[in-house]
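Step 1: inspect the first sequence and its tokens.
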Amino acid sequence: MNDEKTTDEQELTERQPQNESTESRTDDSTDINENKDVNVSIEDTSSETDAEESQDSVLSKLQNELSEVNDKYLRLMAEFDNYRKRVLKEKTELILNGGERVITSILPVLDDCERAEANMDSQQDAASIKEGVSLIFEKLRSTLEKSGLKRLNPVGESFDVDYHEAIAMVPSPSEDQKGKVIDCVQCGYLLNDKVIRHAKVAVAE
């Protein structure tokens, strides 16, 4: 009986170390798994932090680029507005003072007209008066021609609606005169090759 008890105690004693060893291995395995979980959690947190920093960097870069583009746009708009105002001012001045050069060139002719008028009463020679008026008229015509004015007197030319205005149709004196200008009632004028007044003419039919 005592021998059986001793044998049971020995077996119990031998099993205890084995159980302790098994429990120790289980605890070690649990610790390793926990360490792995912690490491994975740390790695995930680090990855998320890096991704957030990368997004913040891209967002900051885009905001800077947007700010630069907006600044350039505002500058261009301001420059264009200044240009538009300057062009409008120049156009207004051109409309108001466009004839200044021509008027200035005509002033000497006006001076001659005033002198001729002042001497008209004291001058008894009609030929001299006529000569003086002819000289003034020629001076006026020359001045206007220098400014780009050209006179249209199309008698004998074929009728052209771009330059002539027919105010009368008359029987043609001959076959070869049909469709041609046979009389000019009012001369037309070109200014730098642009029609500013059509010649009023009578056309043969």
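Step 2: inspect the second sequence and its tokens, then contrast the two.
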Amino acid sequence: MSNPDPYSQPNPYGPPAPNQQQPYGAPVTPGYGYGPTPGMPGSVPPGYPAQQPYGYQPPVAPPPAQRNKLVFVVSIIMIVGGAIGLITNLAAASAILYVFGGVGIAVLIVSVILGVVEIIAGILGVRGASDPAQGQRLFTLGIALLALAVVMMIVNIMTGSVGATAVVGLLLPILFVVGANQLRQRA
């Protein structure tokens, strides 16, 4: 038998009927008509953020660190150049040893070490181009890279194979050291 009184049944769509109590612990949900009226103070149109209390200052993110463009660009060029030089030197190792003999071993060892250090310095340079705290480490790495590039230039002069790549191979570490010094001074 059904009860004809609609207020005696639980209402799932709003507040309980006047003669019923909300179960203990149940969330209280106001029915229709409760809350701020649209257009009145305290109401916020849909899609807009809620108003903050007077004097509230939203948190401000620190400005992004400025990236040293010289270190960043030279690092990318060194990664690409070091990888190409490493692959080329390892692929042509037998020809280098055949043409240059005993000096070819020195050329191959120095060029492989230089290629690996260029790749490492390039990766660290890209990662640390916006961090002034990394400036000293990049500067030290750049000096080591410059020393290897000078040794490679001397070997190239001894073998008579000085070209544009040898000059660029000496110019990039110089630019890396200059950029790392700028980054170091910013710290």
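Step 3: confirm your contrast with the notes below.
The mean pLDDT is 78. The first helix runs from residue 69 to 91.
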